[in-house]
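Holo model, zinc ion. Inputs:
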Amino acid sequence: MQRITAIAALTTIMLSGAAQAAGESSMLTRLDREQARYAELALTIWDKAELGYVENDSSTLLQDTLAREGFTVETGVAGLPTAFVASYGSGKPVIGLLAEFDALPGISQTAAPVREAATDKHSGHACGHHLFGAGSVAAAVAVRHWMEENNVSGTVRLYGTPAEEGGSGKVYMVRAGLFEDVDSVLVWHPADRNQANPSTTLANKSAKFRFRGVSSHAAVAPERGRSALDGVEAMNMMANMLREHMPQEVRMHHVITSGGSAPNVVPDFAESFYYLRHPDAATLEELWARLVATAEGAAVGTGTEMSYEVIHGNHSVLANETLARAMHDRLQQVGGVQYSPSDLAFANTLAESLARSEGDLAAAAARIEPFAPSRSMGSTDVGDVSWVVPTTEMRAATWVPGTAPHTWQAIAAGGTDIGVKGMMVAAKTLALTAADLLQQPELLRAARSEFEQRRGADFTYRPLLGEREPPLDYRK
Ligand SMILES: [Zn+2]
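Output:
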């Protein structure tokens, strides 16, 4: 009797395994069938190249696509006009996907493999967020149909997250508690390679330091003036001395955003914009206090007044090996990006402008990087999400191998089939991994327990940007 029960149970498992595989293949078939639709969505957003917190059309395009597919869309969440949350299904588990869509200012490029600025705009998708947004939406829609066709319970939820580039959109969404009931979050990012690693980043905090002095004629009456630019310069000198006495993992960089306008007028206002990064948020806060002290000292010494405004703050990414492993297995199943002869011709021409040669570009785009922990010295607001929900992030080769983010070469490839093919690799991998999580409670439990362990028992989330309101006009 017992044996019969066992056999029956085994048969059920085998049957459900076969049904699962059939369901999955219909999910992949749907994504293949709808590639042109998502290509159009991504390339429309690429063309608009809207900046952080003013991505009105891009956000609406993504929302409309989801609404037409039966998602419930809540817009303007967390006080961010272009942020939204789109949900399908009900109850647990809740699987979150993130979609970015902001472009970068000051850089534009056509879809040509040689440098050719677009004449009609001064911004561009140099970080591929048009693909990021459209690819995640494609994955969410595929999962939603698969859930309906296979009677899978739970919720798939897509977060439309604006202003990743210096606006920390996700931090306000985390601060507003929008991720509180989510079991796991899956993310991807455009890149020059395919990988799904337990990777981390640096925590990052920025501020504008503003010095106010007294203007005067710089030759006739300098003794009556106090130069705000002196305040900026004194701070920069001390900050550079401080650099020697900081941990070596630090990244610190600045630009002078205002330094006066004529040498014969003593500037009464000057401003510099600093970024400070370190892997550990608590250490970053200690270093931050020392940086602020250089600004205070500079103001005392130059007879100026200083105030500063924290502009953004991102936690590091908390890696999750359990989720990364599940995603890596699915990425291997999906495979990398396959170049057509015209893709390869484009890639070879573009690669002539790159500093680093990657050899056989078709092979590099098709390759899946080995599974290994890694750290980027950059930062992302995905970090804050990863400290409140178990999260993992993959990369897909939407750019010609050897391309760095934030370059014209990234904009160029992102506007072609190469970008679209990389986006579809990501969409398929995200969809399959989400399906795993919706069907395997033990996988979610393992991811959660790793998350709790890495975070530590006494962890409480505090945003590095504090209580400030979103800088909705930072790109205006
Ligand atoms: Zn990015």
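The domain at 203-314 is CATH 3.30.70.360 (Alpha-Beta Plaits). The two ends are 73 Å apart (CA to CA).
Archived with the compound record.
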